[in-house]
Design a protein that fits this description.
Helix content of chain A: 40-55%
Strand order of the largest sheet of chain A: 2-1-3-4-5-11
Distance between the termini of chain A: 66 Å
Oligomer: homodimer
Order of helices and strands of chain A: HHHHEHEHEHEEHEHEHEHEEHEE
CATH topology of the largest domain in chain A: Rossmann fold
Structural class of chain A: alpha/beta
Strand content of chain A: 15-25%
Shape of chain A: elongated
CATH class of the largest domain in chain A: Alpha Beta
Number of domains of chain A: 3
Chain lengths: 333, 333
DNA sequence: AACGTTCCCGTGAACGTTCACGAATTGCCG
DNA sequence: CGGCAATTCGTGAACGTTCACGGGAACGTT
């Protein structure tokens, strides 16, 4: 009835007004529950709107009352549980502000990331996310849009960045392993970027602080399979390794599986400690020890900073934009 | 420089025009890479825009060129891996169409769902999602907006609904268990709604078809913990049960953990078969047998139908809007 | 010199809604 | 009956952008 077969133009507030025999303003009053309208005419307008299938244009409405705020959330891979948790926290924080969240999954592709950023810039009021491109590029694509970077070392002061400080946590993890008698500790770093990760730097510093030689490192894709094959090659090249620290929990879980396949009992023959503190880690066997992050806090903090940037109310300072990690011992190491 | 301390009004295209000594239209040409503009003036305009921190209003732009489409994705809990997978698939499908996706997590709350629906109706061009409220209510809140329901029995023809057909898959699962010698098979249903789930109906039909007595059923919250405690009570009341089928994989994973704690070896002492086919199921010990769904297809199908509804190009018929489930045997049963 | 082209650029209109204001009607009281 | 307030409704303007059109300058052609 209301739907049209032909490619007709949009039903506007004018059409409703004409149909109900009133003016635009009266229609507006009826639909927005404003006062200054008679009960019967209000009902008549509502009926007309329903009959015509009228829905107000969000653009026209947004143009005049500047109240709806929407923020873009950009993540590399929603299926990666780490980002799922961050995203969930961000959604919750945004809801508390009454904001809308547009989510973009860049599929770990720098090219998609570029395209997304390009498109997003004209669709949202602020951007929160995890980016791999250079700050120059991001700057160029966002053009003064408030941007909050997640898990990024702060190189310039153009963007806010939520920093992850895992130094103490990693130190605690390595110390723990050493106390357990481990002397040869390897690491499964990520394979994403060319240079080693910051987490690797923490690892190196921690082993050095414990008076250990520099442990062997192997690069792993950010997936369970990546962790599996990485552990295999690490152990093949360095059979004397009795403990591994991994870039994140996903890789650690892969390491767990590979260890089982290789006949190495965890934690007896091989200790494994991950990074992130995913819930997922409690489900695997044995439960994964990890340097845990407050992922909820991460997402919430990012959105909070976006809010500050947007409202102009004093933004958080860099040293407030930090999420610290702490060792959470379960059974794998 | 560009940012203002005072609460000043928005920088518009007029301001840029004035600053560059040209007209609005010329500014528009420069920013949108249209032709009919001299190289030097274009540069001058771009500089002015940058200096003023100008960003075009998405509302004004959307009002005149009606090209940007955004769809709302409503899910009860993003942290539930099932919905994560559906959401990821939906995001990907939407990206293929060049659409924007606004994601809302209703936190399993009917009240939040209502509020979301209310707000969403004026912000998107179509809604895709998983709803618990009655169709009447949804109808009232969306007012003619294209809506695609996920995993919902089609009661009326007002909405499109993606139906999950697990009948054959569940039948295969039960048949498999019976062939393995199981005679007393229980089920862990969900605890969400008052009435038993459709999946329970499939289960009942399948056991009956195999000539078995009706198996005992226990309700479980949709969480690992829910699955754990549900299995415990089920086994306490019915110790003769040697196999369980669960509402979904999350609950099944809880059952796995409870079985371990109770000293029941899986699958020797207790067989467990879940429903959904989550990737997560491959990570637990033992790997979870399950009646697997094509979750990617689910999300993609929903978005595809939204696209058809939106463009008016013949929508998919109800019997095309079906995702079938098939038994995927791993090691737990 | 008159005329057609090409290249730039600007002006009115339109998109669909809400806001600010004014006008018409009704009711009430003196 | 006059006047004042309250109630109900309508009209111009504004939000910020793009589209359709038209105009002027520069250049070449006949």
């Amino acid at each position: 009835m209301a739907s049209s077969g032909t490619e007709s133009r949009r039903v506007t507030i004018h059409d409703v007004a004409r149909s109900a025999g009133v003016s635009r303003q009266t229609v507006s009053r009826a639909l927005n529950n404003k006062g200054e309208i008679h009960g019967s005419t209000k009902q008549r307008v509502l009926d007309a709107a329903l009959a015509l299938g009228y829905r107000p244009s969000r653009f026209a409405r947004g143009l005049v009352r500047q109240d709806t705020i929407s923020v873009g959330l950009v993540i590399p891979d929603l299926l990666n549980p780490f980002f799922t948790e961050v995203a969930a926290a961000a959604l919750e924080a945004a809801r508390a502000h009454g904001w809308h969240v547009l989510v973009y999954d860049t599929a770990d592709s720098a090219e998609e990331e570029r395209g997304t950023l390009q498109v997003i810039a004209s669709q949202v009021d602020a951007v929160v996310g995890y980016f791999s491109r250079s700050e120059d590029e991001i700057e160029k694509l966002t053009r003064g849009l408030p941007v909050v970077l997640i898990d990024r070392e702060r190189r310039s002061d153009r963007f806010s960045a939520i920093r992850i400080d895992g130094e103490a946590g990693v130190q605690a993890a390595i110390t723990h392993l050493v106390e357990k008698g481990h002397r040869r500790i390897g690491m499964l770093d990520h394979a994403g970027r060319a240079e080693p990760s910051v987490r690797h730097a923490w690892f190196a510093a921690a082993t050095a602080a414990c008076g250990l030689d520099e442990g062997p490192v192997c690069r792993a894709d950010q997936s369970v399979e990546g962790g599996e094959s990485a552990l295999e090659t690490l152990l093949a090249e360095h059979p004397d390794v009795t403990a591994v620290f991994t870039f994140n929990d996903i890789i650690a879980i892969g390491a767990l599986r590979a260890a089982r396949r290789l006949g190495r009992s965890v934690p007896r023959d091989l200790a494994v400690i991950g990074f992130d503190g995913l819930r997922l880690g409690t489900l695997v066997e044995p439960p994964l020890s990890t340097v845990a992050l407050d992922t909820r806090g991460l997402g919430a903090l990012a959105v909070e900073q976006a809010a500050r940037l947007l409202t102009g109310s004093g933004p958080l300072t860099p040293d407030e934009l930090v999420v610290r990690a702490e060792l959470r011992l379960r059974e794998s190491g």
